[in-house]
Design a protein that fits this description.
The complex is a heterodimer of chains A (823) and B (172). Chain A is an alpha+beta fold. Chain A has 22 helices and 32 strands. In chain A, the strands form nine sheets. Chain A has a seven-stranded mixed beta sheet. In chain A, strands 9-18-17-16-10 form a five-stranded mixed beta sheet, sandwiched between helices. In chain B, a hairpin with a 2-residue loop joins strand 3 and strand 4. The chains are: A alpha+beta (823), B alpha+beta (172). The structure holds FE2/S2 (inorganic) cluster (FES) (2 copies). One FE2/S2 (inorganic) cluster (FES) sits at the interface of chains B and A.
Chain lengths: 823, 172
């Protein structure tokens, strides 16, 4: 189904956080203030690689208005953090390994004074030559950045099957190419920050963005050396993350400063500091050699991946695992020899980023497919089909995966598309000057969801009827913009036929939600759906049983509905759908007007989450219950007065589905995507413009069409940046592109305004996992589609991203038409 | 430490006369976010590139991270908090269109986008694609890919246009 507003009809659901966001009334965590708060700042390393000889903070401490100056000596617990491998120092003790390394933190009564205090700190260093590339870090005799060596290798991966060596010897054609991908920046619009508030009971309240509040709480407790229960982490709403805020960033400093000073501390990174200290996408070098038979069937595939993981581990190892798994693409290849290595350098910090290593792998593998098809003189799409895995084949790591038709469905849908058909006979446009070239390319991908085999990936959730008579769900997921709360609303309304005003949705607060895993790896939608499937049964039966006791109507004649329990067959016509429709048709002025009244400025911290919740829930819906018709039996509020409160609470815990086979990192659920792209290349300037794209995505039922389109469009434009303009350039391990004026993310002028999204909603019959997440799939396959299109347009095989414009410039050989002057 | 030079600053912000004692070198974005607690205006790049801090100064869109207090002394400033529908507490048609078309995700760029859209539609009530692109190219959004934003701007344009025509009809 082509996904757009019209097609979505009644399912076009307005986001409950819409009014507060468009009016500017929503308080992000970095907008929060308290009257007696002070301001925290961090002193970061002057050098990418050096030994600290001495730190003199006395002058800073003596400054008026400075409340605290902290170094490594002031960390009561573990002076390290990191989701997977805690190897990043909160404060460096001796060695600094990148320009974002923290040495001292200060708190002062104004941001200006905090800056003065930083200036007053004297650090003496012994400077070393930075390991500014993976080659330098792997060179024999290179200094070891971490003690746990050997060498500067963080992690190695390997997939070996068959005998690649021998198979290459019998291949008729072999394509050898090395691909390079950039250090992409997340560039979330809200930089890191928040408010850290110690309260009278001795607890620390952390209001700072993360993708996993419980993981932050665990790490902060370890740093502070206190029980986890002494910390509350409130972590939504978030002004964008894309993986970039999953690791701790300002939290250790804010927390330690607040505890030391006994007062609220505000932190908010400037963009420059955010660039300097924050995560980036792993730059990778991927060498590939792929051999095929005379008939064009791939026989052998050799891959060597080198990832620049930067100064600390963060999720470098899992990212490399993911890349390794995905560099075979969705193809059946008998002889495989893949090795990956993730290398410590002094180049910033690489970590988690939307696509998680898949983007790099898919760019390389699909590049190989196009080059092989060209040798065969074969249609590249047909070439892919011949080599595609069969439905029942094992996954890339030879592991069992869930059988679906997704791959062949996206292949076929794209094959049929008008855009891809242009590839066959790209009509020359006579109105274009001869130096403007057009081409069409396509790529296909299978992308794993969830963290993969062997990595703890807990899920769960809570469903309850709260004492206000609201159906309440609580998850430890975060809203960083993806539209999770809207999706949950839709799921719950579908499930209980209730209205949105019957709902209370709680996320992003460790005091109020159960531990149900993180919002990462395209997993939240699937996890929430699976949790609700489990929880609805006990919840519904209790609700109906009690309603039956109260009314005398047999439980099997009752159903849940808007406002409460109804007699079966007497629900007000299509309640929840009608309501959504009202909001979606533009007749919604009144609805949104009402919604706005629910928005309140948050001023008092203690009520922050309540008010945030209040602004989330029930904002977009105001079903006025007319005089209760005869079918109405009992309201949720009345039900909630029956029995003990905890009898109305239902919890579930389970794990994200993984393959039964023992392959670390191997996925079980995959989503599939095919992308076609049409480009226009100006061979005088080397500029590439993306004109048209089509994304076909097979990820199961579309729960939230607005959110789905938004995620694919957003992912696609992010991938456009990855392909054409984005690179956090480093020179001698220092960032050259330090802000958004030199680091170029796409603007509204750079995008492909023709972007069609086609959703394939089929799932195998009786599928137990429901809708799959689509947070990443829109961003993984556009790059190779664009470079294939560039090849069709210009004949140039691009192997490096962002596409080097100089490779596409052909100033001397443009044959000018008569009467056309090169302007 | 010597005290920074303080001085009197006045301007009309969202229709209200404001008087503050602040250093004249304070950036407008800090006047708004810190001194007036109008945190709807966001701060992101601080170099005039992203548009998160966009406000209207005497009707013109400006990056409030680049304007100093002394430069807007006595001006008429409108922030996102000052934008609303005809009736108090209702959404302006632009805001309404952003909600309906999914013109935001995380929402952090949204106040700036809405303000730039306001300036755009004030200048070009029925903007062409090119005018939309020129009008909004100073506002970065990392979440939406701009698709929803473009649809919202078009819809807001239509709405504002119809409203204007009907207003004219009522007048005539
Ligand atoms: S913060 Fe002013 S333009 Fe970015
Ligand atoms: S909605 Fe997040 S930056 Fe635009």
């Amino acid at each position: 189904m082509l996904l757009n507003r019209k097609q979505s009809g009644k399912r076009w659901h307005l986001r409950p956080d819409g009014a507060p966001k468009v009016t500017g009334q929503l308080q992000y965590l970095t907008d929060m203030t308290l009257p007696d708060m002070i301001h925290g700042r961090v002193l970061r390393s002057e050098y990418p690689y050096a030994r600290i000889l001495s730190i003199d903070t006395s002058e800073a401490e003596a400054l008026e208005g400075v409340y605290a100056v902290l170094t490594s000596k002031d960390v009561p617990g573990l002076n390290r953090f990191g989701i997977a491998t805690p190897d990043q120092p909160v404060f460096c003790e001796d060695i600094v390994r990148y320009v974002g390394d923290a040495i001292v933190a200060v708190a002062a009564d104004s941001p200006e004074r905090a800056a003065l205090a930083l200036d007053a700190i004297r650090v003496e260093y012994e400077e070393f030559t930075p390991l500014n590339s993976t080659d330098a870090a792997l060179a024999p005799g290179a200094p070891e950045l971490h003690e746990h060596g050997p060498g500067n290798v963080l992690h190695r991966t390997e997939i070996k099957r068959g005998d690649a060596e021998q198979a290459f010897a019998t291949c008729d054609h072999i394509v050898t190419e090395t691909y390079y991908t950039p250090r992409q920046m997340h560039a979330y619009m809200e930089t890191e920050g928040g408010l850290f508030v110690p309260d009278e009971e001795g607890r620390l309240n952390v209001f700072a963005a993360t993708q996993h509040g419980y993981k932050d709480r665990m790490q902060l407790a370890r740093i502070i050396g206190c029980p986890e229960e002494d910390i509350r982490v409130v972590s939504s709403p978030i002004g964008g993350s894309f993986g970039g805020k999953d690791e701790l960033n300002v939290q250790p400093y804010g927390a330690l400063l607040a505890l030391r000073c006994g007062r609220p501390v505000k932190m908010h990174n400037s963009r420059k500091e955010s660039v300097r200290a924050g995560l980036k996408r792993h730059p990778m070098k991927i060498e590939m050699q792929t051999g095929m038979s005379r008939e064009g069937i791939i026989q052998a595939h050799r891959v060597r991946i080198t990832a620049d993981t930067g100064a600390y581990a963060t999720l470098g190892a899992p990212v490399l695992n993911f890349c390794t798994e995905h560099c075979l693409g969705p193809y059946a290849i008998p002889n495989v020899d893949v090795e990956g290595v993730s290398v410590y350098t002094n180049n910033g910090l690489s970590g988690e980023f939307r696509g998680f290593g898949g983007n790099q792998a898919i760019f390389a593998m699909e590049g190989q497919m196009d080059r092989l098809a060209a040798i065969m003189n074969m249609d590249p799409w047909e070439f892919r089909r011949r080599n595609m895995r069969e439905k029942n084949d094992p996954g890339p790591l030879n592991q069992r995966i869930l059988v679906t038709d997704g791959l062949s469905q996206v292949w076929e849908a794209l094959d049929r598309s008008e855009l891809w058909q242009k590839h066959q006979s790209s009509p020359a446009d006579p109105t274009l000057p001869p130096w403007i070239k057009r081409g069409v390319g396509a790529a296909i991908a299978m992308h794993g969801a969830g963290l993969g085999y062997g990595i703890p990936d807990p899920a769960g959730g809570r469903l309850s009827l709260n004492n206000e008579g609201k159906i309440e769900v609580a998850f430890s997921y975060e809203e960083f913009g993806q539209g999770l709360v809207a999706t949950l609303e839709i799921m719950l309304c579908d499930l209980f036929q209730c209205s949105t005003s019957d709902l209370s949705i709680i996320i992003g607060d460790t005091d109020r939600v159960p531990h149900s895993g993180s919002s990462t790896a395209s997993r939240s939608t699937t996890m929430a759906w699976m949790a609700l499937q489990r929880l609805q049964i006990p919840f519904r039966s209790r609700v109906l049983d009690v309603a039956s006791e109260m009314s005398g109507v047999p439980a099997d004649e009752l159903v849940t509905g808007p406002g409460g329990i109804w007699r079966k067959g007497q629900l007000p016509a299509e309640t929840s759908e009608v309501e959504t429709d009202v909001q979606g048709t533009g007749k919604s002025e009144k609805e949104v007007t009402l919604a706005l009244e629910g928005v309140k400025q948050t001023s008092a911290i203690g009520n922050e989450s309540d008010q945030t919740a209040e602004s989330y829930l029930g904002l977009s819906q105001h079903l006025v219950k007319e005089s209760v018709s005869s079918g109405f039996v009992v309201s949720y509020a009345e039900l909630a007065t029956q029995g003990e409160a905890d009898e109305w609470i239902f919890d579930t815990k389970f794990d994200y589905p993984t393959t039964p086979d023992n392959v670390v990192g191997g996925h079980y659920l995959y989503t599939y995507a095919a992308v076609a792209a049409e480009v226009e290349v100006n061979t005088l300037t080397g500029e590439t413009k993306l004109l048209d794209t089509r994304h076909v995505v097979a990820a199961g039922p579309v729960i939230n069409p607005m959110g789905y389109i938004g995620q694919i469009e957003g992912g696609s434009v992010m991938a456009l940046g990855f392909t054409l303009t984005e690179d956090a350039v480093m020179q001698d391990s220092r960032y050259v592109t330090t802000n958004l004026d030199t680091y170029m993310i796409p603007t509204i002028q750079d995008i492909h305004t023709n972007l069609e999204v086609e959703a394939i909603e089929d799932l195998p019959e009786g599928d137990a996992f429901g809708p799959r997440g689509i947070g990443e799939i829109g961003s993984v396959a556009l790059a190779p589609a664009i470079t294939a299109a560039i090849h069709q347009a210009t004949g140039v095989w691009v192997n490096r991203l962002p596409v080097p414009r100089e490779q596409l410039v052909r100033p001397l050989n443009v044959p000018l038409q008569e009467g056309v002057s090169p302007s | 430490m010597s005290k920074p030079l303080e001085s009197h600053w006045t301007a009309v912000v969202n229709g209200e006369q404001k008087h503050l004692e602040i250093a004249q070198t304070t950036r407008l974005v800090d006047v708004l976010r810190t001194h007036l607690q109008l945190t709807g205006t966001k701060v992101s790049c601080e170099v005039g590139r992203c548009g998160a801090c966009m406000v209207l100064m005497d009707g013109e869109p400006v990056n409030s991270c680049l304007i100093m207090a002394y430069q807007c002394e006595g001006s008429d400033i409108m922030t996102i908090e000052g934008l609303q529908g005809d009736e108090k507490g209702t959404l302006h048609p632009i805001q309404q269109a952003f909600v309906e078309e999914g013109g935001f995700q995380c929402g952090y760029c949204t106040p700036g986008m809405v303000i730039s859209t306001k300036a755009l539609l004030d200048a070009h009530p029925e903007p062409s694609q090119e005018q939309i692109e020129t009008g909004l190219c100073g506002n970065l959004c990392r979440c939406t890919g701009y698709g929803g934003i473009i649809r919202a701007v078009r819809k807001a344009g239509e709405r504002c246009a119809t409203k204007e025509t009907s207003a004219q009809e009522t007048v005539s």
